[in-house]
Design brief:
- The chain is built from seven helices and ten strands.
- The chain is α/β, with parallel strands linked by helices.
- It has two domains: about 160 residues, Rossmann fold; about 90 residues, Rossmann fold (3-Layer(aba) Sandwich), CATH 3.40.50.
- The strands form two sheets. A six-stranded mixed β-sheet has the order 6-7-8-3-9-10, with helices on both faces.
- α2 runs parallel beside α4 and α6 crosses α7.
- The longest helix has 18 residues.
- The termini are far apart.
Amino acid sequence: MAAVDSPPDVMVAVDRLTFRYGARGTPVFQDFSWQVRAGEAWSIIGPSGCGKTTLLTLIAGLRRATAGTITVGGTRIERPRPETGLILQDYGLLPWATVEANVALGLRVRRFYGPDGKHAPRAEKVLGRREAREVVESWLRRLNIYEQRAKFPAAISGGQRQRTAIARTLALQPDLLLMDEPFSSLDAPTREDLQNLILQLQREMNLTSIIVTHAIEEAAILGRQILVLGQPPNTAPVIVPNPEAGTPGYRSTSAFLDRCNQLRTLLGLKV
């Protein structure tokens, strides 16, 4: 990955992106440009097949663009970047490892490889075993899963599994947090509880975050900016400012209802 000159406050820069599946497929994105500034919280929403997850995996370095460039933190993305955190819908936990071992996994990988620029940032000090244990314990406590630390994923609830995945990611201190429908399989109370947790962590850590969701209400709760994608090809971003997101009681306000109705209209749904 090569360094690229970009404004210091731009975390993600998508420049004239074109991406298609297969040589002759319809482009999902065509000459598409979009920016995310440091500290911003974005939601991405759109109909099934519009490219929400595709865009997230391109930013994560898990796919390669057909044309155009993506830079994150001033670095052109050609493979996964160690400073980027990714939280998936299916948790991505090792079933044979305890909660504590799962949270510690990324730190163990970094200690094994060292600051090679692939598994850990080159400029970052790799934590020793005792320091890593302290970090893991602090996140287990912070996310209220310390009492489950010796259990295996199959023995805890879906919400606790997702908290474990969040703890594992945040233990690595990412500067960009990508989330792909992380709460869609959870019941409504658990989903709302974890949404509130993400909002709190965003405030505390000044995280730059991008969440893909199919739920209109979730997009309006978690994104202070909302990117609305349509059926391919996507050629220009449709952006809905949502500055009230994250403020206390926003779910109960008329502004929240208006924002959800605005999103429904953009998605072609009846209000």
